[in-house]
Amino acid sequence: MIIKIDDLTGNKTIALIAEHLKGMEENSPPESIHALNLNGLKETNITFWSAWESDEVLGCGAIKEIDRLHGELKSMRTAANHLRKGVAAKILTHIIEEAQKRGYERISLETGSMDAFLPARKLYERYGFSYCGPFAEYKEDPNSLFMTKELK
Q: Strand 106-112 relative to strand 130-132: parallel, antiparallel, unpaired?
């Protein structure tokens, strides 16, 4: 598996983001969806990575710089046909290492509170994320859970 910075112009990456957004729409009410679309992921304070094996996209993830010491994990997704193969763990490890290289003191995330998001929450817990209150621009929402990981 190769994890690389992705410019979000390839058809396979675009299809994976569409799959991600569709999943959010199926499992969250519209007012509680915080997933970014393609244009949102292209903002200058976001770095987006995709994981590949040959010419097949396996998954993706991004980090948004909140400030020089705090990053937000965004758009974690494993392609449906590659679930339970360790793709998300490898991408998450890559992003955490990148956050440490950047000097971030912590990395945080927002995820859904519904059962569909339980596998993601379990992954984040295994990697040392703990539950916290809303951060950055987020507000309390019964459909959202917030997690953070201290990096120092």
A: unpaired
